[in-house]
Amino acid sequence: MSFRQMLLAGFVLIALVLSAAALQGLRVLESFAQQSRAGADTALGLTTAAQQLAQRTVDMERSARQFMVLNDPVLRQRYRDARRDAESALGHFSRAAPATLGGVADAWRAAADQAEAAIEAPADEAALREALDRLHRINGRLTVEGRQWIALQNARLLDTLEANRLRLAWQVLLALLVAAAVAAFFGWQLARPVKQIEEGIARLGDNLLESRVDVEGPSDLRQVGLRLDWLRQRLAELETDRARMLRHVSHELKTPLAAVREGIALLDDEVTEPLADGQREVVDILRDNAHLLQGRIEDLLDFNAAVFDARRLKPGPIRVDEFLNEVADGHRLQAKAREVDIALASEPIAVEADAGKLGVAVGNLLANAISFSAAGSVVTLRARRASGQIHIDCIDTGPGIDENDVPRIFDPFFQGRRQGATPRQGSGVGLSIVREYVQAHGGRVLLLSGDGGAHFRIELPLTH
Fold first, then answer.
1. Does the first or last residue of the chain, that is N or C, have fewer Cβ atoms within 10 Å of its Cβ?
2. Dihedral angle computed from the Cα positions of residues 28, 33, 36 and 40, in that order, rounded to the nearest 10 degrees
């Protein structure tokens, strides 16, 4: 799947999960609404039936008593018509709950038959009165039990609503969890290759060309990874060609330069003939510039060797406090000549690193700090733990770094505008070598802002 297809698939799956939860909720609500409507209709029917049954019972009692007095067949027919109307009301109770209200309805029918039988025997007025009283009691019982049945149905409906609410809440929660899991899965599937591409670009920017750029994920992002790896190989080839050309040019320059220096030496020794004062001055200029050119060529070779050696570390355990003492001891004579003190402050930290290359990096920083510091000043060299890293700081009180020079201070052969008390004759590769060796250890070197002087920091990952 491509990046777009995977993104679309993630959106579709999340939409389907949430839509299923919404449809389930809608179905539950619709079912509850139907049950509620049915319960309301039944309750209304029972209430109406109870009122109708009470009215027809009164009509039956009136017709029966009048028939007992007048013995008019029309009144007996009215009694039967009223009972027939009452039977339709009894049907509501029988349909509602045959096990409870239905049984009471059957008792009502039996009492109505007893009253009708008493009408057929006019002399049995007591039996008629008893049957009519029984009908009224049964009406009251039906009304009470009808209300109880309605209350029971409402309670059951509320229980059903609560159960459905809890079930719906769990379903919605499950849908949200599934949607979150789907989103997290697709997010991880999409974020992982993007991060791999970002790390690959960062390695290319740091000139770490040995590691292959391997991207896992959607097909189009994998294709981007392949193009980045092709770019890595191309950059590695160009870097190899550059280093090879630099070595060849440097060596080719050293051969004729050696001949030039030999010729200058012969002239200076007056092997051919004595030199006039003007000629002596020209020879001195030639000799100084030949030495300067020789130094530049050697600096080129040193920087090229540093870039090459930075990829071949020989790490081992280092006690940082002892390590800094050794580096400082190597620069005591330079500091004494400049009348500069070296202040050391280090925690007892152990780090896994190449002592030789790290010593060159720290030594270059310390040498620069001493060179740019005025007589009587102090150069601070310290180390401490910080957020899973070790920070090695080199701080001086010299003229500092010009703001315009900060972006290029670690570039090869770049020299800043500000100079120390004594102008330096370096070529500007020292800080570049520091950066190469520190990056080879998986760290970085920074120039921190300060009120005065220069503050360089080496950040290395702690292995334990």
1. C
2. -170
